[in-house]
Amino acid sequence: MDRSGLLIILSSPSGAGKSTLARRLMEWDPTLRFSVSATTRKPRPGEVEGDHYYFREPGEFRAMVAAGNMLEHAEVFGNLYGTPREPVEEAMRAGRDTLFDVDWQGGQQIRASALGNHVISIFVLPPSLAELERRLISRGQDAPEVIAGRMQKSRDEISHWAEYDYVIVNEDIDQSAEALKTILTAERLRRARQTGLGPFVRGLMEEEGR
Ligand code: GDP
Ligand code: ADP
């Protein structure tokens, strides 16, 4: 059925598991498009340009913002992050759903944008702050002082949980991934989103038969 694409926003304190959940959702539905952000943060080992992020110098990043090419942007942990606008609008026109891994500031800006009525937003909480720290350490990709900084900011991020449509406490990763698929399935079935349904139902009612 025809419908314009959904914008699915995933936010959480760093380390709660949103990248893992995003990956699971993309494996389940390969038609989903992941919104690749631009950032001034340095790549982590294994991160690929254009796949995980577009890694940019601060000057280049600011030029993209000044040219109006960012749907939203924000400073997180001392680095700039932003969502390139054009690929999102193109996916929406094509009826493709886009998945965003952005912080609360990005969530607010996308909700407030002209595309806001196509947004569904999901906040991922860790079972505890101790477990959050364990996950950041076990990921093994950030220096101890970087992890400490992320832990310090986690309360800030968590304080925005009530701005989201859905909340998942990510205790068991399989259960959380199932919950996420359920949310997306239900949202896609909302009557108002199935804009091609009117003619289909009229056709049903006009069908010859018993
Ligand atoms: P990680 O979340 O610990 O893997 O660390 P990252 O450096 O990849 O991301 C840090 C934070 O920036 C996370 O909260 C992301 O959700 C957020 N982020 C990533 N891309 C964007 C973006 O385009 N816009 C905004 N506003 N936040 C972003
Ligand atoms: P984020 O993208 O929110 O920063 P990640 O998805 O990178 O978080 O997850 C942080 C670490 O925690 C990773 O090593 C990941 O494998 C692990 N992790 C994610 N979800 C769970 C879970 N439910 N139980 C245990 N470990 C998890």
Notes on the protein architecture:
The protein is an alpha/beta fold and 210 residues long. The chain has one domain (7-196): P-loop containing nucleotide triphosphate hydrolases (Rossmann fold, 3-Layer(aba) Sandwich), CATH 3.40.50. The chain is built from eight helices and nine strands. The strands form two sheets. It has a five-stranded parallel β-sheet, with helices on both faces. A four-stranded mixed β-sheet has the order 4-3-6-5. Helix 5 runs antiparallel to helix 6 (144-158). The longest helix is centred in the C-terminal third of the chain and has 17 residues, at 173-189. The relative contact order is 0.21. The mean pLDDT is 94. The structure holds guanosine-5'-diphosphate and adenosine-5'-diphosphate. The site of guanosine-5'-diphosphate has 16 residues, from strand 5, strand 6 and helix 4. The site of adenosine-5'-diphosphate (ADP) has 15 residues, from helix 1, helix 5 and helix 7. It comes from Paracoccus litorisediminis. Its main location: cytoplasm. It is found in: Cytoplasm.
Write a brief caption for the model.
The protein is α/β, with parallel strands linked by helices and 210 residues long. Helix content is 43%, strand content 20%.
Features:
210 residues; alpha/beta; Rossmann fold; five-stranded parallel β-sheet; four-stranded mixed β-sheet; 20% strand; binds guanosine-5'-diphosphate; binds adenosine-5'-diphosphate; Guanylate_kin-like_dom; Guanylate kinase; cytoplasm
